[in-house]
Amino acid sequence: MTQKPMRDVKLWSPLVLWENRANGEIIVWREDPLGPYPAKLNERFVHWANAAPERVWIADRRDTGPWREVTYAEGLAKVRAIGQFLLSLGLSPERPLVILSENSIEHALMALGAQHVGIPSAALAPAYSTVSTDFSKLRDIAGQITPGLVFADDGNAFRNAVDSGFGAEVPFAVLDNAPSGRANTFRFADIVATEPTEDVDKAFATVGPDTVAKFLFTSGTTGSPKAVIQTQRMLCANQEMVADCYAYFRDEPPVLVDWSPWNHTASGNKVFNIAIYNGGSYYIDRGKPTPALIGRTLAALREISPTWYFNVPAGYEMLVNAMREDDTLRETFFKNLKMMIYAGAGMAQHTWDALNELAVETTGGRVPMGTGLGSTETGPFALFCTEPQEQAGNVGIPAQGVTLKLVPADGKYELRLKGPNITPGYWRNEKLTTEAFDEEGFYRIGDAVKFAVPGDPSKGFYFDGRTAENFKLQTGTWVAVGDLRAKLVNQFGGLIRDAVITGENQAELGALVVPVLPALKALVPDGGNLSEAEIFDHVNVRAALAEKLAAHQAQATGSASRIKRLMILADPLRFEKGEVTDKGSINQRAVLRHRGDLVDALYGGDPRVITALKKW
């Protein structure tokens, strides 16, 4: 079958060089150097406020009503007012701004207002305040960064979290519902009405590459969340790398429709700053890739045509299913789209193929689709793949200015990184900072990779698992968890969304699988009237999963790639226990730690266990 053409999109054209060391290490870098970048990100905001003052910078809406838009000129005026207010309150790197709310225009303005005058901000997962009941992670965070002001959109909804986590004496800024009787509480409307003075311009002038722009907290799945320092150099260098990769941004300011939370590096750094760096327009998607909220995402994409789009694989799968039934959605989504990005988990091949088919059906050609590899500590942009691929998974080559070190370890390569996009370390934690870097100054990202084409780094790499996730079977055979998990999800053809691989010190592998409930319901007559437990226990469902498991086993090449038993994770993964992030990424180790009873049941003859041998 003839391959359909790719939509013509201007992307990077790099030359990759490498050196093979005598000790087996491989150093990989780009011959083309990183271009110049500003000393501070808000220089770009000021530039666009002057060059394109009436262009929409950011837009938001609560439900499905009209979009509330803010132009670059309007945004800069508010940013300067907020900067003045924060300076007057005495905030500094030692007393930063903490933001508890979800993505919103006000959230964006508060963060940029702080950044404009050299005050770091820290956006925290709202679930730390709204799902957690003991606020222990908030107290841990408060001890690390000693905030001078906390901002939330709803004062009454967040008051208990603020008072319990940070202290009733900490100043509190709110958009709505200022709590009565609380001292040091400020309204957003009054903050943006502050008259800027020359102090704002003086503070802006002192912001430089080494100024701390923000703190981003890792998920804290193995203890307290860690405050990862994000400098202006990191953010600006990273955006110049991004602009080199998606070269069409130089000629065409991007249009973005994005749901991913700003307390994560993927959106809080990369996507949010793409708009600012390139003079683009950022539309806040109030949906999420969940059955309850995907409708908001679809509503946004029926109206706004993105030119660059990011989502997690589960979100793309939901989008594919919706586009098959909705021509308007499909046409609007693909109308101006030049690049699709996925991250957070491995994309199933059937989702990859469906997106290509829908793109061809709509535009006559495929839309470039790719992924990369990075972390909170890398800005996040570090590797990316723009070369056309026939299957998902290639994380690509290093960005300009990034050097890779591949260190042989247990039959694979541990990845380490160096470049101007790498964090200087963890705030007020010298021990963790020292442990994060090797003797040559390379950051230990904790990921393993393998060559896409053996011996040729220019063809990119495949993710080969988190080094901390991988384990040995009873036989001493190493299991590459990340690669196996991605293959298993793909082989189950949309019946499962993710999986936790079990089997450390066992004779064989097992899996706790996250089900796709609508797909399982479709297997059961009158499934809409049954409870989740009844669906999961239905003979049709168990037979379908057993059939997929048998097919998986037939494709496996050995004990380290063959799942022999599985069980459905009936109870949702818990954010407050670190089992899953608010972006939907699973932490393998945390789930195994908290659900040891299920692992025991999986290997103990529990009737819920599904195997390929039993007839259903």
Question: Strand order of the main beta sheet, please?
Answer: 1-2-20-21-22-23
Q: What's the CATH topology label of the largest domain?
A: Rossmann fold
The fraction of residues in strands falls at 15-25%
- What would you call the structural class? alpha/beta
Gyration radius from CA atoms, angstroms:
24 Å
Number of domains: 3
The CATH architecture term of the largest domain is 3-Layer(aba) Sandwich
Low-confidence stretches: none
- Structural shape: globular
For the terminal residues, how far apart are their CA atoms?
Answer: 38 Å
Mean pLDDT score, rounded? 92
Largest sheet: 6 strands, antiparallel
Short structural description:
This protein has 21 helices and 29 strands. The chain has 616 residues and is an alpha/beta fold.
Explain what you see.
This protein is α/β, with parallel strands linked by helices. It folds into three domains: 16-38 and 242-464, Rossmann fold (3-Layer(aba) Sandwich); 42-49 and 71-207, Rossmann fold (3-Layer(aba) Sandwich); 469-611, GMP Synthetase, Chain A, domain 3 (2-Layer Sandwich), CATH 3.30.300. It contains 21 helices and 29 strands. The strands form eight sheets. Strands 1-2-20-21-22-23 form a six-stranded antiparallel sheet. A five-stranded parallel sheet has the order 6-5-7-8-9, with helices on both faces. A four-stranded mixed sheet has the order 4-3-13-12. Helix 6 (155-165) links the parallel strand 7 (149-154) and strand 8 (172-176). Helix 1 crosses helix 2, helix 9 (232-245) crosses helix 10 (265-278) and helix 13 crosses helix 14. The longest helix has 17 residues, at 72-88. It is globular. 51% of the residues are buried. The mean pLDDT is 92.
